[in-house]
TrEMBL record:
SUPFAM superfamilies (UniProt xref): Periplasmic binding protein-like II, Winged helix' DNA-binding domain
Keyword Coiled coil among record annotations: no
Alphabetical keyword list: DNA-binding, Transcription, Transcription regulation
PROSITE patterns referenced in this protein's UniProt entry, alphabetically: HTH_LYSR
Superkingdom assignment: Bacteria
Domain (HTH lysR-type) ranges: 3-60
Classification via Pfam families: HTH_1, LysR_substrate
The UniProt record lists the keyword Lipid metabolism: no
Protein's organism: Achromobacter veterisilvae
Protein name, entry field: LysR family transcriptional regulator
Family membership: Belongs to the LysR transcriptional regulatory family.
Amino acid sequence: MQWTLEQLRQFAAAAEAGSFSAAARRLGRAQSAVSTSVGLLEADLGVELFDRARRNATLTPAGEVMLQEARELLRQAGALEQRALSFAGGREARLSIALDEALPYLVLDAMVKELAERCPALELTQLNGTATEVADYVEQGRASVAFHFDRGDPGPAYAHRYLGDVAQGIFVAPGHPLAALPEVGRNDLARHRQLLMQMDGVDQAVLSPTVWRADSSYNIAAMAANGVGWAILPLNIAEYEGYSNALVGVPCADLSLPMLSVRSLWLRGRSLSETELWIQRRMGELLRLGAP
């Protein structure tokens, strides 16, 4: 078979316009050229696509089926062309990023949606993990850049950039003894089990003699929701749909909680791509806006 994409375009145009003359006007071609092109396509395929006994361009049953095939091929050809134009313009074909699981999901959802619209030809891989894990993904070469909560000096192998902040607070289950107090002090916190993030090489504020640790903010939130202890959590974790009714904030006037900084992280000496720079910039904007 020697049919061409141009013949498929003219076939689809005639079927959609309802006549060869209307298709010719839409395509900026002579009616005879469109009719001839469709006739050659029919001869090549060995299938009659239009019922010539009728005045308008009416599809035969076989033509109706072939129209769906033609549209799919034209869609694939258009996608191929757009992807080639994107690559020719200097955008990368693939990108792997690592995302801290504790980052605000509204920010990540909005960023990914906009990225899909901005870079339709991109093949994206997202790796999720704890703040420590996403840094390891970069070091291992599994991701080119990571976005996570700042948990201290990442070491000389990395370059990093501050993007924004997320507030945090103290949370317990509604039935926890601390939830019944109008205001909590450090001594009150010390009487109950503290739930802490497990991060090697990072000093954290231990305020209770009894501590349980986990390497996931969501695991810590789950333990707090089950009444196991109290935890300092990013507000977005405590307000997440699964925990919004299972956790309550505890005010503590004599404990000042700093904002949690969000940063991007990549191997030192490596230049970031245009897409990676856009992700950095847009994530910072969304963090400042609080996401949509």
